[in-house]
Every structure is written in structure tokens, then in C-alpha cells.
Automatic annotation (TrEMBL):
<dbReference type="GO" id="GO:0005829">
    <property type="term" value="C:cytosol"/>
</dbReference>
<feature type="domain" description="Cysteine-rich">
    <location>
        <begin position="3"/>
        <end position="83"/>
    </location>
</feature>
<feature type="domain" description="Cysteine-rich">
    <location>
        <begin position="129"/>
        <end position="222"/>
    </location>
</feature>
<dbReference type="Pfam" id="PF02754">
    <property type="entry name" value="CCG"/>
</dbReference>
<dbReference type="InterPro" id="IPR004017">
    <property type="entry name" value="Cys_rich_dom"/>
</dbReference>
<protein>
    <submittedName>
        <fullName>Fe-S oxidoreductase</fullName>
    </submittedName>
</protein>
<dbReference type="GO" id="GO:0016491">
    <property type="term" value="F:oxidoreductase activity"/>
</dbReference>
């Protein structure tokens, strides 16, 4: 299958390593990956600021850019959620509906489209805490949330379980918001900071060395607090761990 790789703005500008890891990981599982150079933002920042009409040309450009691919895959739950659920403001057409249905968050794609069951050679020896983003967890249903009754599951936990050496830590608040929330962190910085510190404290309390997520925006917020307070933690997108630089296991 041919995959169109959609890279969010903040990964493109600040965390290109997460985009590269996503590309390499998709190629490892057998996809032909194309990165359309003409791609731009999904339009979420404008829409979240009450300017959805101004975002519509961006939506239309996204549809035009990715129309030719079997699937569109993005390492960001929030961007995918926006395409899946907010492109309904465009005039209804078979093409728009099709694009929305073929746009997947990375973990969702690996689990439900590829049907991934193993990652031979993947290795990352570290204690890892999973941060579940709000859009990914409650919007895309990439895992179970505490306010809903049902079976416990997590696509990230499932995928990280394929990586040798990863020790997943158990948190007290597995589905609590980090406080980023896009423009929320700009409009309510004190509250956003407090929420971020609470999430970091949970990871520290349980001995995590790395905090991972499928949304680099959440990790960017948490990393800012970690750096300013010189905390013994680092952040990595889940794609980086699944495609770890320590992936090669010596033959025996």
C-alpha cells in the first residue's frame, strides 16, 4: 500500500526526529511512504481560535494534497482527530468523506490496518511512562478512559510491549490531561503549568526515565517544564521508541 505521510507543524519545526522515525517505521512494516512536499497545516490552530471559516482553504488544500494515497498516516492524534471530525464543514462530497476515513493516527494504523503483531529487533532498555493525549484517548479511542465502562486497552501499551527492554511504569492518573490544549496553554498559562507539573510528578513518582506519547504537542509542553526545572526525565514520541536507534539485537 502507498501511504501519504502527514507531518504536523510542530514536529516539522521542532521535532523532526519524530517525523523521521515515523517514516522509517512505516517502511519497516512494508509500506511505500510518500511525503508530499506541498503539504501544510491541517488547520486546527485557526479552528481552535474561532476562525474555522479562515481555515477552510487549508482543509481544501489537505484534501487536494492527499487524495491520491491509499492511506494518510500522521504521528499526531490531535491533527488526525481534526481531519476526521472537523472537515465536515466542507461541502459534502465522496472525496472529502473518503479522505477523512482514510486518515489515521500512527498507532491506530499499525494496529487496525497493518495488524502489527511483532517488531523484530526493536530494543529500548528504559523505564517508560505513557502519556495519553486527550484527542487520542477520548477522540480517537486509542485506549480506555476512566470515565467509560468497558474493557481496558491501549494501542500504545500494546505496541511498546513488542519492544525488548521497555519497562512500562504504572501511573496513578493514566488518562489525565497535561494542560497543553493548544491555545489553552497560551490563554491560561498558570493553570496549564500546574496541570503539566502534576503529570510530570506522576511519572517521577513511579520512576519513569522517559515519557512517551503519540502527540508531540503534549510532550513539547511537558519537556519545557522538565528543562526549566532540570528534572531527570526526557520525552520521546512513541514512533522513536518503536523505531529505536537501539533496535539492532546482536545475533546469537
Amino acid at each position: 500500500m502507498t501511504v501519504g505521510l502527514f507531518i504536523p507543524c510542530y514536529i516539522d519545526q521542532f521535532y523532526p526526529r519524530a517525523g523521521i522515525a515515523t517514516l522509517e517505521l512505516l517502511e519497516k512494516v512494508g509500506c511505500t511512504v510518500v511525503y508530499p512536499r506541498e503539504q501544510t497545516c491541517c488547520g486546527q490552530p485557526l479552528a481552535n481560535s474561532g476562525m474555522e471559516e479562515e481555515a477552510r482553504p487549508i482543509y481544501e488544500h489537505f484534501v487536494e494534497t492527499f487524495r491520491a494515497f491509499d492511506y494518510i498516516v500522521c504521528p499526531s492524534g490531535s491533527c488526525v482527530y481534526h481531519v476526521n471530525h472537523h472537515y465536515d464543514v466542507l461541502p459534502p462530497s465522496e472525496e472529502v468523506t473518503d479522505i477523512r476515513q482514510r486518515t489515521f493516527e500512527l498507532a491506530d494504523f499499525l494496529v487496525n490496518v497493518i495488524g502489527l503483531q511483532k517488531l523484530p529487533g526493536a530494543r529500548f532498555p528504559a523505564r517508560v511512562g505513557i502519556h495519553n493525549s486527550c484527542h487520542g484517548l477520548r477522540g480517537l479511542r486509542l485506549g480506555a478512559s476512566s470515565e467509560r465502562v468497558g474493557a481496558d486497552f491501549s494501542y500504545y501499551r500494546y505496541l511498546l510491549g513488542m519492544v525488548e527492554g521497555v519497562e512500562l511504569v504504572t501511573l496513578d492518573r493514566v488518562d489525565e490531561c497535561c494542560g497543553f490544549g493548544g491555545t489553552f496553554s497560551v490563554n491560561q498559562p498558570e493553570l496549564s503549568t500546574k496541570m503539566g507539573r502534576d503529570r510530570i510528578a506522576d511519572h517521577l513518582r513511579h520512576g519513569a526515565e522517559v515519557v512517551t506519547s503519540g502527540d508531540m504537542s503534549c510532550l513539547m509542553h511537558l519537556e519545557g517544564l522538565m528543562r526549566r526545572e532540570k528534572l531527570p526525565l526526557r520525552v520521546m514520541h512513541v514512533a522513536e521508541i518503536l523505531n529505536s536507534a537501539e533496535a539492532a539485537v546482536p545475533a546469537r
